[in-house]
């Protein structure tokens, strides 16, 4: 198949899933065309069957905001037509689903039909998509997609709850590539971070409000009072400053390291003992899955799709949003006993295996086939 993938080229979430999916499909013989405004962060090396089309957004003095949607639409029309794509798979509804619909309509005037599949990732429904500024377009373009997938049952249900959707939404879970995410020996690195054998807690996110990074610091503060420990904070974003201030207030600066955006997340996960993700909302929690694949138990909130990934009492624990006391107690419970920690590590790995890319990728291929077969010209 010749597949066009439209996504954000960013480090986290939907961009990562879209890129890994495209690379995986290319390895299985499909021809994959990424269409976005910057090279996707995880598209780091040359791959046979993988093409990248950059959307041109030249500045023009009239525009206070460059009309990216229009530029992307034109690029999609061009790429579908000249690369002869079979389908477009767009990740994150805003603005990609609406743009794809527009491109589809333009192509129809040229006698060309291209089916569009939209994958919903989370904030495009729960946070941004809900906003009145976007909601009518989100609802319309989901209904006009030929196929719609969501990354968890929770997100599927939230989409039906928030919008008037007349389409069947297929759940296809996010996935993990074990060639990359597996526990490896990084003892030298562990020694540098925790020279006295301290426990290492880790959090990875885009530091947006929804991630509740201050809760991460509060949980660590409590754990730190019980156990010698260090906290690694990976990523960057608007909440970093507040988190830094809180570290200073709590006199934790020597034991918390802000590492900023990192590419080799798996090397950091390899030294961690607990992953913290106390989010306000989380459709899936890909970073938690990456941790589990590296045998790191997860302490999370019970928001959104997190209970579909992190199993309470087995792979980690879940608490109500904001209950930092309980989350800290759970972390202490796991970290205080080597046997308990090892049991949780094993369970985390076993659960992560359910989301092996080798199992999930064929589900996308099968879904593509179904949509192509059902496409109404
Ligand atoms: O978490 C973010 O803010 C990034 C966001 C995105 O769309 O890039 O992540 C969402 O998609 C990920 C991949 O499907 C999910 O694992 C995240 O749970 C989801 N984030 C939220 O729902 C907050």
Write a short abstract of this structure.
This protein has 377 residues and is α/β, with parallel strands linked by helices.
Written overview of the protein:
The protein has 377 residues and is α/β, with parallel strands linked by helices. The protein has two domains: 192 residues, Glycogen Phosphorylase B (Rossmann fold, 3-Layer(aba) Sandwich); 167 residues, Glycogen Phosphorylase B (Rossmann fold, 3-Layer(aba) Sandwich). Helix content is 44%, strand content 16%. The chain contains 15 helices and 13 strands. The strands form two sheets. The chain has a seven-stranded parallel beta sheet with strand order 3-2-1-4-5-6-7, sandwiched between helices. Helix 11 links the parallel strand 11 and strand 12. Helix 3 crosses helix 5. The two termini are 18 Å apart. The model has no long low-confidence stretch (mean pLDDT 95). Ligand GMT binds next to helix 1.
Taking the sheet with the most strands, its summary is: 7 strands, parallel
CATH superfamily of the largest domain: Glycogen Phosphorylase B
Query: What would the average pLDDT be, to the nearest integer?
Result: 95
* Morphology: elongated
- Secondary-structure element series: EHEEHEHEHHEHEHEHEHEHEHEHEHHH
| Tally of helical runs | 15
Q: Which second-level CATH architecture of the largest domain applies?
A: 3-Layer(aba) Sandwich
- Give the strand content: 15-25%
Overall helicity: 40-55%
As laid out across the biggest beta sheet, the strand order is 3-2-1-4-5-6-7
| Domains, number | 2
Rg of Cα set: 21 Å
């Amino acid at each position: 198949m010749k597949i066009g993938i439209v996504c954000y080229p960013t480090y986290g979430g939907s961009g990562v899933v879209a890129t890994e999916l495209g690379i995986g499909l290319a390895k299985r013989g499909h021809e994959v065309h990424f269409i976005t405004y910057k090279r996707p962060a995880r598209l780091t090396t040359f791959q046979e069957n993988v093409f990248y089309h950059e959307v041109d957004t030249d500045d023009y003095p009239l525009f206070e905001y460059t009309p990216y949607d229009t530029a992307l639409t034109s690029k999609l029309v061009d790429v579908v037509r000249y690369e002869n794509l079979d389908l477009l798979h767009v990740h994150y509804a805003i603005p990609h689903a609406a743009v794809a619909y527009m491109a589809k309509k333009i192509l129809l005037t040229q006698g060309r039909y291209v089916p569009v599949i939209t994958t919903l990732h989370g904030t495009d429904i729960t946070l941004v998509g809900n906003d009145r500024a976007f909601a009518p377009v989100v609802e319309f373009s989901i209904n006009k997609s030929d196929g719609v997938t969501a990354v968890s049952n929770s997100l599927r249900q939230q989409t039906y709850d928030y919008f008037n959707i007349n389409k069947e939404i297929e759940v296809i879970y996010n996935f993990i590539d074990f060639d990359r995410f597996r526990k490896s020996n990084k003892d030298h690195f562990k020694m540098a971070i925790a020279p006295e054998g301290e426990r290492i807690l880790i959090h990875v996110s885009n530091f947006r409000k929804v991630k509740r990074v201050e809760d991460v610091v509060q949980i660590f503060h409590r754990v730190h009072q019980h156990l010698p420990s260090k906290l690694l904070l990976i990523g960057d974003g608007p909440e970093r400053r507040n988190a830094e201030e809180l570290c200073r207030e709590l006199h934790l600066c020597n034991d918390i390291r802000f590492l900023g955006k990192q590419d080799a997340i798996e090397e950091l996960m390899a030294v961690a003992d607990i992953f913290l993700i106390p989010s306000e909302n989380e459709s899936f929690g890909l970073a938690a899955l990456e941790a589990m694949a590296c045998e790191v138990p997860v302490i999370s909130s019970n928001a959104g799709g997190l209970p579909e990934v992190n199993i309470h009492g087995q792979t980690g624990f879940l608490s109500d949003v904001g209950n930092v006391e309980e989350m800290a107690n759970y972390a202490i419970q796991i970290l205080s006993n080597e046997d308990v920690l090892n049991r949780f590590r094993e369970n985390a790995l076993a659960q992560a295996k359910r989301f092996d890319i080798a199992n999930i990728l064929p589900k996308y291929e099968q879904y593509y086939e179904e949509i192509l077969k059902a496409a109404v010209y």
